């Protein structure tokens, strides 16, 4: 039998760290100023940077959803824990 233990305060710290890191990554934006350079390799570099910025936006969207999900997991866990704490052993065992 396995045991799952969620320590709410420690988990909230992890959620907060995750959200902070996501905000840092979400704030990243790369740019290339090619000025008057007309080289195919520079054009490819600019294209790659645009793709990287798009990837960062997608990552930020998904990471933000993950952070929100982590918060909901904690809230559901705490609610369930609170429900169980108010029941007697008989109520828990017999439903």
Oligomer: single chain
Number of strands: 0
End-to-end separation: 21 Å
Biggest sheet, open or closed, and with what strands and sense?
Answer: none
- Helix content, binned percent: over 70%
Mean pLDDT over the residues: 89
| Fraction in beta strands | under 5%
Give me the Rg, rounded: 23 Å
- Please state the overall shape, judged from the principal axes of the Cα atoms: rod-shaped
H and E string: HHH
Question: Structural class, please?
Answer: mainly alpha
In the predicted model, the low-confidence regions spanning at least 5 consecutive residues are none
Could you walk me through the main structural features you see in this protein, from its secondary elements to its overall organization?
The protein has helices at 8-26, 40-85, 89-94. The protein is mainly alpha-helical and 95 residues long.
Main attributes of the structure:
95 residues; mainly alpha; 3 helices; rod-shaped
In short:
Helix content is 75%, strand content 0%. The chain has 95 residues and is mainly alpha-helical. The model has no long low-confidence stretch (mean pLDDT 89).
């Amino acid at each position: 039998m396995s045991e799952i233990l969620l320590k709410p305060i420690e988990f909230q710290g992890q959620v907060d760290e995750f959200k902070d890191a996501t905000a840092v990554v979400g704030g990243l934006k790369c740019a290339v100023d090619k000025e008057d350079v007309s080289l195919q390799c520079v054009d490819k570099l600019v294209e790659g940077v645009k793709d990287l910025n798009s990837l960062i936006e997608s990552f930020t969207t998904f990471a933000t959803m993950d952070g929100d999900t982590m918060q909901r997991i904690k809230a559901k866990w705490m609610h369930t824990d609170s429900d169980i704490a108010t029941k007697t052993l008989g109520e828990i065992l017999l439903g």
